[in-house]
Amino acid sequence: MDIAKESADIILLEKSLMVLEEGVLEGRRVFGNILKYVRMGTSSNFGNMFSVLGASAWLPFLPMQPVQLLVQNLLYDFSQTGIPFDHIDDEYLRKPRRWDVGALGRFMLFLGPISSVFDYATFCLMWFFFGAKTPEAHSLFQSGWFVEGLLSQTLVVHIIRTRRVPFVESRASLPLAVLTSAVMLGGLVLPFTSFGETLGLSPLPLSYFPWLAAILISYCALGQMVKSWYARKYGYY
Asked: What CATH number has the domain bearing residue 105?
């Protein structure tokens, strides 16, 4: 017995092989949450790249100041710290998954540009409806995109985290739900605070928020449709 223990790679502390099944399932949960984080990060950054490139070529001022972009990314990253504690759908655990870089790149190409569509919708809203066309009005423009960009990035976490319909068929764990909600609330409040003023943000008019709600709802609906189509076509999620 002592010789067997010394040469063994694994020693069972209980007289049951069920611990092996639990270990396999836990490994699949960890791997699934890692893939969630990679999908969210790559698709979000890919979409932001298109938005920044297009806006920089069109606008007479920066669409967002570097410090604002850094704060936005910091808040978004903070919201994702709850992903390791998130639930995994039962059907995902039924079979082993493999690391597929090609599938991750394909997912990024399909889901990433969707955010750019609604970023450009926000640009047009701030430019034409709110008249943020001049360098003097750049703070209002940047505040509008800062809030929309942060909320859309954070909200889409719930879309990407599951193959099912979010909030209805699959709900995030409590830590992830609390963190994403807190970040979204903080993003809404930040332009109205003194700290937001030091970042170059300015208070947004109340008429902005119905437009924001419409953009976010449309973004979630389109993201869910593209995600479902992607899952049916490629069978990898």
From this structure: 1.20.1110.10
pLDDT at 2: 80
* Nearest one of 8, 113, 123, 122 to 55, comparing CA atoms: 123
Residue 5 lies in a domain: no
Write the pLDDT tens digit of every residue in 171-226.
Answer: 999 999 999 999 999 999 999 999 999 999 999 999 999 999 999 999 999 999 99
Rounded to whole angstroms, the Cα distance separating 214 from 210 reads 6
Kindly tell me the burial class for residue 139, based on how many C-beta atoms sit within 10 Å of its own C-beta (0-12, 13-18, 19 or more): buried
Quick one: tokens of 90?
């039962």
Range of the domain at 82: 30-234
Per-residue pLDDT tens digits for 25-76: 999 999 999 999 999 999 988 998 889 888 888 888 889 999 999 999 999 9
Q: Is 15 a member of any domain?
A: no
Spatial CA neighbour of 205 closest among 122, 119, 143, 133? 143
What is the CB neighbour count within 10 angstroms for residue 66? 8
Asked whether residue 1 is assigned to any structural domain, the reply reads no
User: Among 106, 77, 147, which Cα is nearest to 235's?
Assistant: 106
